[in-house]
Amino acid sequence: MSYLTLNAIFLGLAVLAAAAALWRRPASRRLYAASGLALVAVLVLTAVFDNIMIGVGLVAYDPALISGVFVGIAPVEDFAYPVAAALLLPAVWSLLGGDTRPPIRRRTTPRSEQDE
């Protein structure tokens, strides 16, 4: 089994979980923004540290099992796991009821008027 096939399975499961979470309770813009920011951060960290680990020989890939597309010296297949995590973790959190708190209410009157 190639890494691309394995990644497709994990990404498919993550997409299904995210779709179930969105169907059950549509996400707020804050959740999308936080998930997107986390995804960007994890992709950057993956690019840096995977290239370092491969460069020093800590990790090696069978050339017959990768697609041949690289980011630096890291195969593109390495980046599927952060994408799956960015989809799956917020979805699982939402499905387990992690976002059931009422929204934070902002004050509409200045504090000085409320104290009088």
UniProtKB/TrEMBL annotation:
InterPro entries: Lycopene_cyclase_dom
Localisation: Membrane
Transmembrane segments: 6-24, 36-59, 79-97
Keywords from the UniProt entry: Carotenoid biosynthesis, Isomerase, Membrane, Transmembrane, Transmembrane helix
Secretion signal, residue range per the UniProt entry: none
Domain Lycopene cyclase span(s) in chain numbering: 3-92
GO molecular function: intramolecular lyase activity; lycopene beta cyclase activity
Principal subcellular localization: membrane
Pathway(s) this gene product operates in, as recorded in its UniProt entry: Carotenoid biosynthesis
GO BP term, pick one: carotenoid biosynthetic process
Membrane topology designation: Multi-pass membrane protein
GO cellular component: membrane
NCBIfam families tied to this protein: CarR_dom_SF
UniProt name for this protein: Lycopene cyclase
The species this protein was found in: Cryobacterium zongtaii
